[in-house]
């Protein structure tokens, strides 16, 4: 992916999730997105339902995509192999099969948001125990979100209720580059 020739600067951010009592009837989960120190885009949200760790990781990605402009390259840092593989390797096959499996609504929604981007999206794997302060700040936001109230279904604060922009269709004369990529092999 060639980012240095893009007319807009790349946006870097870290995502993280937190689950309390994962897999139990009273699971509390939160997602955090950290763009940088003092950024007004730094945010967190409480994830509704009885979310799994994977669902909460996906919710963080969706939240980040909804906050960023679609014409900037995105470098998304996450510790979730599941998120990276789901979006870079498995999504086309799942789409062809009608999005089977758990978290299918989230995956479908995220791919629609990525399709609306005119710039490339790269998912970057970071170690879960990373000493990176940005990653720690995303984790703090995710843990803090566990104390937030749940948004009502269909509410403005429910990320699945926000429709994605129309899919971006590149001009015929444009250079072809991957829409989504990763640093994983």
Automatic annotation (TrEMBL):
List the Pfam families hit by this protein, alphabetically.
Answer: RNase_H (PF00075)
Checking PROSITE patterns in the record gives: RNASE_H_1 (PS50879)
RNase H type-1 domain span? 7-147
One GO MF term attached to the UniProt entry = RNA-DNA hybrid ribonuclease activity
SUPFAM superfamilies given in the database record: Ribonuclease H-like
Protein name from the UniProt record: RNase H type-1 domain-containing protein
Q: Which organism is it from?
A: Tetrapyrgos nigripes
């Amino acid at each position: 992916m060639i980012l240095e020739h893009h007319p807009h600067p790349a946006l870097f951010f870290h995502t993280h999730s937190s689950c309390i009592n994962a897999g139990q009837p009273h699971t509390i989960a939160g997602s955090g997105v950290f763009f940088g120190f003092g950024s007004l885009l730094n945010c967190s949200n409480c994830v509704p339902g009885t979310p799994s760790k994977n669902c909460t990781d996906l919710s963080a990605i969706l939240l980040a995509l909804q906050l960023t402009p679609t014409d900037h390259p995105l470098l998304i840092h996450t510790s979730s192999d599941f998120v990276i593989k789901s979006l870079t390797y498995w999504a086309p096959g799942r789409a062809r099969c009608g999005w089977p499996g758990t978290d299918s609504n989230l995956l479908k929604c995220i791919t629609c948001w990525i399709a609306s981007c005119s710039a490339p999206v790269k998912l970057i794997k970071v170690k879960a125990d990373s000493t990176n302060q940005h990653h720690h700040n995303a984790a703090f936001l995710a843990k803090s979100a566990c104390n937030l109230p749940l948004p009502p279904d269909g509410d403005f604060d429910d990320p699945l209720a926000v429709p994605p922009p129309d899919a971006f269709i590149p001009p015929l004369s444009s250079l072809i580059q991957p829409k989504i990529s990763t640093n994983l092999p």
